[in-house]
Amino acid sequence: MRPVCLFLLLSLSATPLFSAQPHFGKEGGVRTARILGEGGRFIDVYGSGRNAQTEQAGAGLLLLCDFRRDNPAWEMPYKKILIGEQERVLLEDPRKAYWAAFVGGGRFDEVNPLSLVPVRPAPAPVHGVVEGDVLEWGGNAVHVLETPGLTRNGTSYYYDLENEKGKQRFVFCGDLVFGNGQILNLYDFQDDFPEAKIGGYHGFMGRCPKLIRSLEKIRSLQPDVLVPKHGPLVENPSEAIGTLIARIRAVYANYLSTSALWWYFGEERMTESARAMFGKPELVPADIPRMPTAQTFLRPDWQLALNTTRIVKSKNGEALVLDCWRPQIVERIDRLIETEEIRSINMLAASHYHSDHIPGLEILSERWGIPVWCSTVQETILENPPAFRMPFLDARPLSRIAAFDAEHGQTMRWNEFELTFFYFPGQTLYHDALLVERVESKENGDRAVLFVGDSFTPSGIDDYCLWNRNLLKPDQGYFRCLAILRLLNKRFEQAGKQRPVLVNQHIEKPFVFEDSQLDYMEAALRKRVVLLSELFPYPDPNFGIDHAWCRVEPYALETDPGTRLSAELVITNHAERSLRFQVQIKDYSVEVPVEPNREIRHPLQLPAPTESDYGLASIRVCCPEANLDGCCEVLLLPRQITK
Prior knowledge:
Radius of gyration: 27 Å
Mean pLDDT: 90
Helix content: 10-25%
Largest sheet: 6 strands, mixed
Shape: globular
């Protein structure tokens, strides 16, 4: 038997019906709900709001579906705050449970981040609940459901109301659903995909099978009204849930059709992910529509492969090194020099900032006294990694960088090779590509090579981690990458040459996409834009796949207690119309207009850190007309722990 310190455990058959009609409100686009009970007692769900009527101390309970700090302000002197048992610690002591390790360096190893973890401990005692608990307070009985979804251990609550309409069942479901079959985003569903033995970084929509099971559990209760944290009341629950499940599955089917993971993980594991998502254990690989695999070729003799490092050898013994992972790779390069496989290194380049590609470049740059080439876009993250919150960051900046213009690229001659650098936002927004062509080569089969970093495999697109910011807009993301491939193919073929082979630096053999495969990927991406537009409640679907549409730069600031700091709030308006955003930091608020398809930088003066909030400042960014309710943070780091 669970403790009964503040609530009575009742059997479902004995649950009474009450006449306490919920009262609903809004706090900056987030719902508040209150159930009034006997003796002045009440139950709030999600929060009280800043302007809630003050009640007697200890008269209320607060029920939370998740730990996220977009819950409305907790102004009431609550008797208890209740949340799912496995999320309780994130409210009681968020610093110990999360922020201490994160701030101390764990953020550089993120693969599937938690977002919106609270800054400060809850203002009242926190009690954990589990499925089957029944909470009795002020004559009302509320039932607990475990419903993972937007968070790994989310909770929902339901209670029955007897009124002139008869019996009504209300379910408070957090952010499991928005309106008639939508959700707030996809990046917060990035997680381990245990059914397919896929880890969090590769776990595109990994938590969605759990979300579907949670939605089906709620539907089985035959509710009359869903009360989500965001959006309108849902008075057609069964229809809305069915629509949402169908939309989720449609997006995943679209993703599977061009996923790079078919090459990395194989048919059985990817089919297992489909079985889990679609609820069809009988599926076989042939049942899943997907792009035909590209043809592979032998690697040219002037290219060497060392893990994710690629080396271009010139006839004079000089070498170009593209990416370099660990110091052990540097040692292997040293052995190549010792054995005269290469004579020296006189050019370095970075495909992208991930920590399995970058750390050794700084060693080589210092040793040979040469810069690392990259685009002006990637330069921002390579020269100051702690200023960003992105997956697989390496904490150490590059000290020597030669940046080419991202918009136009750059072509240069290097020994017998012609090099062309491209900004290539494939696997991540901060990503480049390098075309290497041996000039006037008459050797049979000697083709140009386009080093694409981690952006493509023979089976398709490396867009499995939305925290990498895979945007879906013309001339952005994979639309831009595909356009570059088409342009190069046309240029080479018009010159009577074979189209370049593509090199993914995790794959041994180069490969080439046929026009039909390029068409297939582009059509799939265009269809995904449509599917995501239906799935999200925003004027542009990129808001639902871009965790950094509102962010602070730099993400981390060195500070001393008592100092005021300056930073920039960056807001990206993905919409085709102007939007006005409400920005709030503690008691400071301002309205910031942003033109269509523009990114603005708004200066921030951050409050002096105090002992209670030292380490983190939280910023709320809302646009109710577009259903946008964003939160971002900036780390305020004591100098001695700055990584």
